[in-house]
Amino acid sequence: MPKKPQKQSWLNAPLIVLAILVLITGLSLFLNRDLIIGIISYKEIKKEKQNLEEKVAALEKEIEVLTETPRQVATETAAKEVVPPPAIDFSASSCEELDQKIQEFFKYLERQPYIASYNLDNGARVQLKKLLEKLLDNPPIVARETDSLFTILTNTAHFYRVLGKENVLMIREIIIREADILEVTFALFNQWSIIGDQCRHDQTEIRLPLPKLYEYAGFFLNTLGGQSYLFRRTPHIRLLIKYYCVMVIDRANAEVVNRYGIDIVPHLESLINEIEIGETMVYKEQYLRNLRELRNKYQTYYQGLEDPVTR
Domain span at residue 239? Predict the structure, then answer.
């Protein structure tokens, strides 16, 4: 029986060593748990940081795209806005071409339901022709308007007095509803007023002689009644009427029929300033170019008169 205990001691030795190693390892892990946790946390934090950095980089790219796109769109839009529309120019048009365009305008009006509601007997062309003739044959008072309060009041009510309420309302509705085509329409009739007298066999049958147009140009530019009428209109129609009034005065000067001696220069200056700051005119740049050319022409003319060498 003496050899049995030695055998058991030898068999238990590995277990004792393993237990000691486990104890030491466990103690070591326990003592260094903060370090181990720190290492694990650092790795997780580093990994999370990388993820965040990637997300930030992606967001920065998205922000760059979002900020650049509107800027590009804004630039393209600004570029489109800067480009002026093609100039209105009927000066090269023949009598037949102008006559056809005017007829197309009247036919267009007659297709509009609001015109049909006025029950015009002979259509828009005949009715508007009659109204134009009435206006041209019954001009307002331009000279010495302020001598009489009655004259001022008569000028203020000129269109109602000559045309009647119903016709005035119809013309007013045309101006409002057809605002988009007014600039082209005015240019068309302006050119017709220049060459219409030379045209034969036309369907338009409307004549706009310069001396009679001159009376209305003087009315709008130089009388209280005319200016009162313009101030009641929208900036768009007001500037358009004033522009063509100035063009008529220039033609009257050229043909020596400016019988009221209307000075065009102050009207040129004020109209240029109004159109420059306004945003309602589609062909704004064309109007300004024409007006500036007229201003330069009259400045050169008046400087020549004042030059003692040329007297």
Answer: 111-310
